[in-house]
Amino acid sequence: MRVALFATCLGDAMFPAAPKATVQILERLGCEVEFPAAQTCCGQMHTNTGYRKQAVSSVRTFVDAFADYDAVVAPSGSCVASVRHQHAMVAEGDRRLSRAVARIAPQVHELSEFLVDVLGVTDVGAYFPHRVTYHPTCHSARLLRVGDRPLRLLRAVRSLELAELPAAEQCCGFGGTFALKNPDVSVAMGADKARHVRETDAEVLCAGDSSCLMHIGGLLSRQRSGIRVMHLAEILASTEGIDR
């Protein structure tokens, strides 16, 4: 299967380990993975902030970059949700762009749903001898409805001990520009999430979005908790002899 990696702008600029790990997993499972160099931001930030017209060029760039692939995979529930639920709205009024979005958007997948639903795999051959807790990010849980797919993948990782996160369904408070516009509320929500993470006695907090891990991880670091944050892809890419 010819698969395109959608690295996302956050992954490309700040957290490259997640997209790199995504490629490692997919190639291990026999996929032919390519990185279309023309890709840029999906336009989510503009759309969420009310600048829908300004997001049109980002959507157009997206559909052009990913037009010729069997599937597009991203290590981000948030960005995939934007493609599948916002791009059609942004493209309204432009017939050509709307048709392109309608064709490509269903082929864009968050990593866990691609592994479980498209490839039919839960055991990806990973090894990670640590106690891990999982935070279901809002967009992956509420818009993509990935459900227990990430947990099924984590349970299949050899030597991994999975700890249940209290109040897991609660938002971490990041919300993209919400954290900038409402910093006090954002930090309070993040503090609640960090407290619940500490209650698990986990060594590692895992999630499917680097943005949420950045927010929670910053709080855990300032609290000197000793808890690492890692993207789901990084754990699934780990093998015996490679302890991330």
TrEMBL record:
Residue intervals of the Cysteine-rich domain: 3-83, 132-216
GO cellular component: cytosol
Protein name: L-lactate dehydrogenase complex protein LldE
PANTHER family: LACTATE UTILIZATION PROTEIN A, UNCHARACTERIZED PROTEIN YKGE
One matching Pfam family: CCG
One MF term in the entry's GO annotations: oxidoreductase activity
Domain of life, per lineage: Bacteria
